[in-house]
């Protein structure tokens, strides 16, 4: 049996742990040959790939990123971009030429959408969900998410000492353009006083009043703000930037807007400062939790391959590894429900949520 | 409403996060008064306690240990020790004298057994499970466990560099006298080549053969061994020490025994070294995961108090916070089932399990 | 003997370790009374202060920030701002009223300038240098600097995994408005391919050519850029912003300018991304090195007080704690000499320096 | 020019950073060829070596251990052991056969002694000091030392939370068989209440009295004890073990002895616990400080090679990289002088030193 494996979309801590687990499980258990396809789906088109052996992957569990490389925009069905050419035939040729019996595809929503199209063309595909933002459908927790929440939590801890020393309001802007999972989890873990998410608009007057009061009582206030958070009634800050720019992070998004707004409301007596965590959230070695989860996903994906269950994606539900149909996942986003237990927890602690 | 809270048994990362969440939830949501009882059940006997206010606990989420102190052996029903006096009347007096309406008790198996006895005497008690070892019944994951597994995983990462440089077999001895959860989770996350647990005996000849082969292929081998692991057919190492000593860790347990055994089998060509992680596994700041879990447990316990549901312990099942009867938990140990998914994952990766 | 102690200017990891060491040394060795003055020189004006006892400070060594609080702009000689009122009389009243025999002042260039003026008015003052940027005169290494360089080095390590996975050029913008010490030390430790400092202008064409080549050879390139770095021949980016804004960090400084410039030169084939570390560099617990250095400074300052050597500032030269005149330090900046050994080291490794 | 490089003795964080710096400096600056000799001096005998290229070493700065491997006991002049055969001729053959113009040797006292013998035989040798213990002569600070002190400091921080929660006396046993540098630096950084070193004997009665008092005042006590510390008047614990065992760490050394002694003196009211850090102190990624220092040493060694200054070892004096004669270093140990500034600092803080 010959299996191809690729990683698509943005990188994420734990990708190498999945590659390692898929490879070890297939090689050790059933003597398969595994080929790593480089730079996401691009490798299916330009033919860049390399053999993966047990000895080469065994030490990978702690390594950040992906040894295979990845590519954000390489869609064989639209190469490049939305109006691009359909090059999927080239990809099928590649699979045929290398006698690849099945493809394990690790990626996010975009990658699963492509994988599903390949599945419909008859390619035996198994998906592994990759989303730092934790917003893939039918999958309750993904590797990389705990690592990102840990970066947020650590940053809040660091900033608390400077906030306290100067009596400041400090804002941390996290990832989460559409869903607020990282801001919520990282904010809870880091002891944030307020958590702002795309799912729940905030009124700046209320936020400013809360921040002023908390700063008086506690000497400082920590705000944890998802990239996609937005003021209610006001304009959709991020949306406008998405139209104008490929990378809103670089233009200064909600964090800087909020800093200016809060300063205007709080006056010169309270200093407000903002920190963007940006790429720090996706780099580096995965946490122990993410290493184990990525390893479980990898072994589960190898199991699907060995049992011939294709067109499926591995997922975590409760604490169980299950599998779901690729078609059920593609093109959707899992938002934080406004009655989610974590939000109830945050409310019980007196955290401002908008 | 006046609520007492205490922490019993060995300390654990996340205890302060529970104390914080219980207090904030009770004070902010229903204006309760919260009193911290010091040094576990001992405080019920000697009357040492102090008021807990929102402002005092809000900054506690990252702090290791317990600000209330704890005590390993203070059982009011047997004070001190198995043949001790029943001083539970004194404890009841304390609760009456301070008009304490309910007691939140954070602790492990021993603590829950005591809590259950108080519940039978009519004390309104709510339990919060505390077990780094993750071996309390009906609770699938406890705070402190992720922190301990992270210490194990980090230690394996550190030791790998020295193992590789010297071509050694290196052993890490973890906590887990009765159940192997920490060795299993930490070993998976740290890329251990072998994981030995109390639940699965090992044959030294097989282990030595495996270690020799792995060291040849990979240049080194990493073994992750729970404190309570045991050789098959051989004597029960730990059990004998338990009889002789109050603290087997200090005498050199399975790790040192295994080092000597492996050296005997491997000969002078392969060096074997052992590291005991000991108390490092229970000290320090909790991981982001544990902070959130402890916070959820704390809020859930406050909810039980507010709804008057006593004699219950908060628990995690799947990813849901539920509650179970104290009587169902007390006096039992949750072992790693030999068909557990994590063990299947380990086997799929070619990890030696005995 | 009654000693006052205050922290001025921006916060910095290690301030609490100094406060602890000064207090322990004065209390334990000569039975002095120590009073902590709050929020920098502001406490001398509004009278906010509190007694510091050995038991209260002993646990402070690992705590970030300053328990006394600090203030960036509270100059008793110009209250507030450059054209402000001279309130130094109030400060002298405070010292007299509390019978304070000597003042230990921990701070940077601005704080030392104020301390020196007080010294000229006859106040027995001892200074302890505080500068994350490591740019105080006559002091070769200050606490906080190693902590900041560690944050930079860790960030470079994290970003390397994502840079490598995506084949990107990644920029890290560090502190260092006038001197490049942090970028240089952190960049060396983090394996940066290029280090840009205020002391050495760069030509964008050369930098772009270097980045392209390094990205081709290595698959990615990491650039470490001090806040105050500037293009040669071009305008002085930061200077202009200093005129316009109280906080250039928040407007997007050199990092974003460089990102745009490099993208223009490198074309669409190479992605460029930027991360601002900002306040992460000054928050959090000090490194072991900084804890020891801050402790040495604190004990040395206590020694100056006990020996009656006032108007002096503690300093590190070589690895020796010495003391220098406050007047020699005030109003100056220690730049990186272009023939400094660290720069020679960077050149020997093929690091691009401009 | 063809340069050989090898690492001897125990591994240490920063070895790879030296290998990287030597290689980059020699390859980039003067187009030299560099060959890595494997497993210390053993590679000179069995001929195992490999070419080192710039691209292969550039990413090594953060990696723990040594990619070349090392060997504790491979002395070509006594192969193996004190009464072994002189195989130095074989080593000279190897150097001649590969046309190696100079040898860079990274190691400790034993390695420098061997290097010095080769120098006397006419081999152009340059030494780089490697000693976690920081006890090589004429070199004030070595890479790996800051990393080890950081492990000790972090461990003390972790153990403090559990010590405080249980009201315990906790002992951390560090490396330092002959010199107490690690215990001193790590103990200062970690806020230890007592620091015991080989250079300064302690009386158990005084230590017990101090620990009892500190535990009463502070609620706990932290003791940082070098492996080679010893009781005054009592037997030389470690020395006896050195006679009996190749590895005293594994038998339970001073830490366990001290635990038992303190328990005997303190009675059942105060619990005493001990943690051995062992190999954790030498594994893992070097700190930022050690990465820079190792890099400086590597570049300085390359400079000696290029200038033809052989028979010399790089060293740090003050903060300057200098070089000293191999003969001045070999066979000696740098102890902590009892009037050393760090000891004076410790005394000023009220730390018990014996």
UniProtKB/TrEMBL annotation, chains A, B, C, D:
Which Enzyme Commission number(s) are on file for it? Answer: 2.7.1.11
Give the site residues for Important for substrate specificity.
110
Keyword Methyltransferase carried by entry: no
Kind of enzyme, top EC level? transferase
Among InterPro entries, the record links this protein to: ATP_PFK, ATP_PFK_prok-type, Phosphofructokinase_CS, Phosphofructokinase_dom, Phosphofructokinase_III, PKF_sf
Q: Which UniProt keywords apply?
A: ATP-binding, Cytoplasm, Glycolysis, Kinase, Magnesium, Metal-binding, Nucleotide-binding, Transferase
Q: Where does Mg(2+) bind?
A: 109
**UniProt similarity note:** Belongs to the phosphofructokinase type A (PFKA) family. Mixed-substrate PFK group III subfamily.
What functional role does this protein have? Catalyzes the phosphorylation of D-fructose 6-phosphate to fructose 1,6-bisphosphate by ATP, the first committing step of glycolysis.
Protein name, entry field? ATP-dependent 6-phosphofructokinase
Native organism: Roseateles subflavus
Report the gene name: pfkA
């Amino acid at each position: 049996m010959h299996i191809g494996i690729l990683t698509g979309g943005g990188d994420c801590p734990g990708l190498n742990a999945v590659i390692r687990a898929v490879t070890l499980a297939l090689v050790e258990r059933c003597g398969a040959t595994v080929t790593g396809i480089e730079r996401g789906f691009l490798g299916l088109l330009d033919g860049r790939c390399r053999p993966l052996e047990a000895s080469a992957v065994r030490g990978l569990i702690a390594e950040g990123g992906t040894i295979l490389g990845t590519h954000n925009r390489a869609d064989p069905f639209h190469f490049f971009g939305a109006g691009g050419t359909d090059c999927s035939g080239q990809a099928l040729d590649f699979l045929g030429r290398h006698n690849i019996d099945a493809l394990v595809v690790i990626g996010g929503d975009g990658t699963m959408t492509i994988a599903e199209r390949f599945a419909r063309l008859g390619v035996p595909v198994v998906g592994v969900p990759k989303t730092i933002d934790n917003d893939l459908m039918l999958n309750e927790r993904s590797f990389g998410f705990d690592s990102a929440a840990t970066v947020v939590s650590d940053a809040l801890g660091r900033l608390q000492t400077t906030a306290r020393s100067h009596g400041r309001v400090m804002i941390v802007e996290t990832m989460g353009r559409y869903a607020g999972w990282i801001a919520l989890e990282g904010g809870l873990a880091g002891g944030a006083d307020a958590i702002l998410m795309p799912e729940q608009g905030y009124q700046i007057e209320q936020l400013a009043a809360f921040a002023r009061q908390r700063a008086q009582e506690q000497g400082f206030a920590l705000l944890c703000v998802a990239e996609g958070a937005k003021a209610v009634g006001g304009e959709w800050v991020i949306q406008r930037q998405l139209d104008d720019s490929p990378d809103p992070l670089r233009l200064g998004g909600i964090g800087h807007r909020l800093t200016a707004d809060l300063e205007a409301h709080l006056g010169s007596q309270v200093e407000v400062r903002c920190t963007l965590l940006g790429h720090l959230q996706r780099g580096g070695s995965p946490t122990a939790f993410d290493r184990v989860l990525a390893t479980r996903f990898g072994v589960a994906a190898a199991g699907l391959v060995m049992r011939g269950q294709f067109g499926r994606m591995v997922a975590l539900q409760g604490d169980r590894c299950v599998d779901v149909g690729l078609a059920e996942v593609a093109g959707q986003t899992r938002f934080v429900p406004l009655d989610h237990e974590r939000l109830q927890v945050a409310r019980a602690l007196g955290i401002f949520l908008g």
